[in-house]
Design brief:
7-stranded parallel β-sheet, alpha/beta, Rossmann fold, 2 domains, 10 helices
Length: 291
């Protein structure tokens, strides 16, 4: 068990010491994991523009530092491997030391390895699970300890934990079972954590975006999903990356992929409303409609 008592006490004593800035999140401290690029970077930028102090938490330390420096004095970069428990605890500790506490955790870091049952190896399945599922538990475990201390110190304090899930957490995904399974599991964690943390005035919700077709997860020329899906034969008849992209765009009634601002709007809703917790909020352009 990692001893967090020092940082719990520090957060409780500094719960009212926040950097005020114009915006809907003025005075809030947010950690965004996996925020050196992709959805995470866009989310972090939007949260900062809404007045939050933001931790750019990422394994890619140089890129995270560049993002934080570009944002300004209310941003800091922290290197973290979310699959490492000690590293997650240190991320939380450094956040408290720098900003005095945590009000919003956005668990965004995620990976994907596609393949059929015959192709995907056990080590790849376990890697996806460790980042997309287990790390959400670990980040919530340590961030919530700080949040609970703040709730005890200030009867007016409220906090939020947001998992950036996926439309693949709402419906299965052909030859992409490691990812979909981890995301389905994440929603189970969201609902369970919501029940446990509600008494501490901490809401826990999931945002389930559609495909960010212009992000690095899809566009990377070697490991991106366009390449992976083309190689795996996930899109029947596709001969090129353009064929794969067109296939996914045509699945969306809005005829485009999801972008970070779409996700941030859902995060702001989840934070600002007072009465919903344990929810999985689709942001899919109508591709997935709940019944």
């Amino acid at each position: 068990m990692i001893d967090m008592s020092k940082w719990e006490q520090m957060a409780a004593s500094r719960v009212n010491e926040r950097i005020a800035a114009p915006g809907r999140l003025s005075g809030k401290v947010a950690i965004v994991t996996g925020s050196a690029q992709g959805f995470g970077k866009g989310i972090a930028e939007d949260l900062y523009s809404e007045g939050a102090s933001v931790v750019i938490a990422d394994l890619n330390e140089p890129l995270a530092k560049t993002v934080a420096e570009a944002l300004g004095e209310r941003a800091v970069s922290i290197r973290v491997d979310v699959s490492d428990e000690q590293g997650v605890a240190e991320m939380v500790q450094k956040t408290v030391e720098r900003f005095g506490g945590i009000d919003l955790l956005v668990s965004n870091a995620g990976v994907l390895k596609a393949g059929s049952l015959d192709e995907l190896e056990k080590k790849d399945f376990e890697f996806v699970t460790s980042i997309n599922y287990t790390a959400f538990f670990t980040c919530t475990k340590y961030a919530s300890r700080i949040m609970k201390a703040q709730a005890s110190a200030d009867p007016n304090w409220t906090g939020d934990i947001i998992e950036i899930n996926s439309k693949s957490g709402l419906e299965g995904s052909n030859k992409n079972f490691a990812y979909a399974g981890s995301k389905f599991g994440g929603i189970g964690l969201v609902q369970s954590f919501a029940m446990e943390l509600c008494t501490h005035r901490i809401k826990v919700n999931a945002i389930c975006p559609g495909n960010y077709l212009d992000g690095p997860l899809w566009m990377d020329s070697e490991r991106g999903l366009f390449v992976q899906y083309l190689r795996a034969g996930k899109v029947q008849g596709a001969k090129t990356i353009e064929d794969v992209r067109r296939f996914y765009e045509e699945k969306v009634p809005m005829q485009r992929g999801c972008v970070p601002k779409d996700v941030t709007k859902a995060i702001l809703y989840a934070v600002e409303q007072d009465y919903e917790t344990g929810q999985a909020i689709p942001v899919t352009g109508g591709q997935v409609m709940l019944s």
